What we know:
Elements: H1 13-22, H2 36-51, H3 54-70, H4 73-99, H5 105-127, H6 136-139
Helix pairs in contact: 4-5
Amino acid sequence: MALPLSIRKDTSTNLINAQIKQGSIPVTRDCKNIAANDIEPLVVSLLKSSIFSGEMIEKAADAIVETSSSHNSENSSESIKKEITDLDVKISNLMKLLESGLNSDAVRDRITEHEARKKILEQQLKKIIPLPPVSRDVLL
């Protein structure tokens, strides 16, 4: 048997009571207690009707199309390719330092770090599978 909503204890009861006393939460004195079993089906029904309305489905489709176009695999592959190019330049510059006579363990360590990062990025680039564009018509 479900308890009426007014009997259920909430961890924020004291906070709510304090706000009621301050007047920041309006109180209607004519409310009746409604059992949760009675109100839950009504709430679920109202949510279903608003979520599955045509307007909401169209908004969801628009959001999906917008998100998929901005997170497209081409964008991620381009950013990985750019980072690989940047690493190549850094590695080349560090190699020039070594060739010019700067014999430093720090430079060698940095080259090793850049090469390891480049290898990881190249593996990620191979794993990227281009996704077909998402069409609004297909979603609706």
